[in-house]
Write a structure and sequence with these properties.
single chain, alpha/beta, 8-stranded mixed beta sheet, two-stranded antiparallel sheet, binds guanosine-5',3'-tetraphosphate
Length: 204
Amino acid sequence: MQLLKEKVLEEGIVLSNQVLKVDAFLNHQVDPALMSSIGKEFLSHFSGEKITKVLTIEASGIAPALMTAAHLEVPLIYARKQKSLTLKDDIYVKKVYSFTKQVSSDLTVAKKFISPDDRILIVDDFLAHGEAALGLADIILQAGAEVAGIGIVIEKAFQNGGERLKDAGYRVESLVRIVSLENQRVEFAEDHEEKEKINHATSI
Ligand code: G4P
């Protein structure tokens, strides 16, 4: 998605080889026009999937997921994140570990919001190791519903989340894929592939 790539290049800050800060348009201040374009883009990917609900996690997943739900004309549910929880029987719970933040939390969703005939699209802002998306998928499966697909705004393709989700059999659509954050530079997958092709052609 060209618009998103430009935004990442103009306003993203590479904090380390592992972490990209995007608080100017996604994680703190939010660009509504960009979120709407993201929602439209996910609509174009998933419009044939008979989606009944969109599921994300508070907090930063909510903005892109809400605009996706608006374009798909279905409700949005966001899982709440709690430190730890005593067992309750009216909620689905899944413990997830964040490698980036090095904390565990319990994802919770009220049982009344998911039914077995739902086909649910998971949307999240970042894909790193896949823990969050796999946790949401687990909750959908606990409810006996179906995972219709996973939409990711920014995939860090140098971490293993994408592979883990595809290995688990899920359809994953990422709007931008970053292959490297080394040398304080964002390198996108397509640009990397293009560079490889040119290098290959010039070496023949
Ligand atoms: P995973 O779910 O793919 O395994 O990712 P991981 O556990 O490593 O990271 C989880 C949290 O860290 C998520 O935020 C995710 O959005 C965020 N995150 C991961 N990599 C990056 C990055 O490069 N840049 C930024 N800005 N965030 C990243 P969260 O805990 O759900 O917090 P919130 O911001 O949504 O409240």
